[in-house]
Design a protein that fits this description.
- By secondary structure, the chain is α+β, with helices and mostly antiparallel strands.
- It has one domain (about 20-80).
- Helices cover about 35% and strands about 25% of the residues.
- It contains three helices and three strands.
- It has helices at about 20-30, 50-60, 65-70, and strands at about 35-45, 50, 75-80.
- β1 and β2 (about 50) form a beta hairpin.
- The two termini are about 20 Å apart.
């Protein structure tokens, strides 16, 4: 069990963990405790990035976020391993 929670944040520092629970849960399951990554959340639609879909997901929490994940799943693209 991780002593520190997994936190998903926007570039401006807004908390997004509640909007993207599948990203948080995957990180908990697959990354060692203390890992710090920098990257980008993306949503693919018709072989292109769908920024509007990502923005819509960013505002969803709870059941609406889970439902949105089934139709337009987010992906995390890591750019840097910080620690």
């Amino acid at each position: 069990m991780h002593a520190h929670p997994v936190v998903v944040r926007s570039r401006l520092g807004a908390g997004l963990s509640g909007a993207f629970p599948e990203i948080r849960d995957t990180a908990l399951a697959q990354l060692p405790e203390g890992t710090g990554l920098d990257g980008e959340l993306v949503v693919w639609e018709d072989w292109r990035l769908a920024f509007d879909a990502l923005q819509a997901r960013a505002g969803a929490r709870g059941a609406p976020a889970a439902a949105a994940s089934r139709g337009r799943p987010p992906h995390f693209v890591a750019f840097d391993l910080l620690h």
